[in-house]
Amino acid sequence: MTDRTSKWRLLWPFLALSLVAVACGGTDSADTDAAETSSSADVASGDVANDSSAETSDVEGQIFISGSSTVEPVSVRVAELFEDVAPDVFVDVEGPGTGDGFKKFCAGETDISNASREIKASEAEECAAAGIEFTEILVGIDGIGIMTSDRNSAIDCVTFGDLYGLVGPESDDVESWADANAITGTDLPDAPLDIFGPGEESGTYDSFVEIVIEDLAEERGQEAATRSTYSPSADDNVILSGIQSSDTSIGWVGFAFADNATGVKLLDVDGGDGCVSATADTIASNDYPISRNLYIYVNETNAVDSPALRAFIDFYVTTGLDEAVSEVGYVELTDAAKAEVIAAWQS
Fold first, then answer.
1. CA distance linking residue 102 with residue 107, whole number of Å
2. Which of 92, 185, 197, 212 could cross-link to 181 by cystine, CB 3.0-4.6 Å?
3. Is residue 36 part of a domain?
4. 278 touches 266 (CB < 8 A)
């Protein structure tokens, strides 16, 4: 096996969960019932559809994927599976973060951009200005795990108000959990506060701010952002290590990372309807209030020009969605959503 991928080549088996798709109805979000696959331009079906005239085993070439560290293990696992059927295609995957990935993608430097959120309007405009047309493909569902040390017995559930008071834009001077009670917290314990989380380059950061912080910040006339007084990291393993190191820490990463970590405790989250545990079931049903969709974005011009890239995406939306997503710990799309992804890609 060639050394074609990032560190996840060795780590993905330890992230594997026995997760299955459980979202066959019972979800309030159209995003998890149907794959919202959209294109920035009309592309003839003969250009981007399945290339039936060529055997996958005969294709060769190189593919460069960047973007979300959350989606990175999915793309790495798909690349590993694809190597078995297309050994002459070299797939390089890196995970600097969703935002940094889109910068490279819109500069024409990558073929695929992994993303743990939808592309922003400003990023789409940047791509358009550079002549980059793209297809958005929904690949799975993830939640954001809110964690503390497994030695912290004083807290089991946090509200959106608690999280805003602890890590929101008004909390720069908050030094203990209890300090957040003066902002929007509710009966938080008097204990030192150590915070570990992603930075602005991360799609996980963006999703956390959008889901947890934004509404309260707007109500209170504040900018939708986290506090500036913590040291963010783009490396989920660094975040987990930090949370493990402090008895009264708090932090957040993607659910798959959090659920497989030792030395940490996943906190229940109350988004307004009571405390809900983060599980595959609650994430798939959207009962867990901090859930988000995972995407890849494909450079359409490159897909037209590269049989290897077309074959890889054909493989990604079939075998990849069926096998890789759950193998690395995320929640699969429903069968109906998978069918919509395939139909949209091949249209």
1. 8
2. 185
3. yes
4. yes
Instruction: Compute the distance between CA of residue 75 and CA of residue 43 in angstroms, rounded to an integer.
Output: 24
Range of the domain at 173: 143-291
Q: Are 132 and 213 members of one domain?
A: no
Residues 275 and 148 in one domain: yes
One domain, residues 33 and 118: yes
Residues 161 and 183 in one domain: yes
* DSSP reduced 3-state for 149: strand
- The predicted pLDDT at position 56 comes to 81
Q: Is residue 2 part of a domain?
A: no
Q: Beta strands 134-149 and 264-266: pairing type?
A: antiparallel
Q: Alpha-carbon distance 78 to 150, whole Å? A: 33
Give the Cα separation of 230 and 233 in Å (integer): 10
pLDDT for the residue numbered 86: 95
Q: Write the CATH number for 255.
A: 3.40.190.10
Let me know if residue 131 belongs to a domain.
Answer: yes
pTM tops 0.85, yes or no:
no
Same domain, 287 and 151: yes
- Quick one: which of 46, 56, 60, 47 has its CA closest to 2? 60
The series of mean pLDDT values per 10 residues for the chain, 347 residues long, is 38 37 36 40 37 66 95 96 95 94 98 95 98 97 95 97 98 97 95 95 90 95 95 92 97 89 96 95 90 95 97 96 91 91 90
Within 8 A by CB and 6+ apart from 343, the residues are none
Specify the number of domains making up the chain.
2
Check: CB of residue 165 under 8 Å from CB of residue 273: no
Q: What is the pLDDT of residue 259?
A: 87
- Look at residue 140 in the predicted model and tell me its pLDDT: 94
CA 298, distance to chain mean position in Å, is: 16
- Sign of the four-CA dihedral 107, 112, 117, 119: positive
Cα separation, 343 vs 341, in Å, equals 6
In a domain, 3, yes or no: no
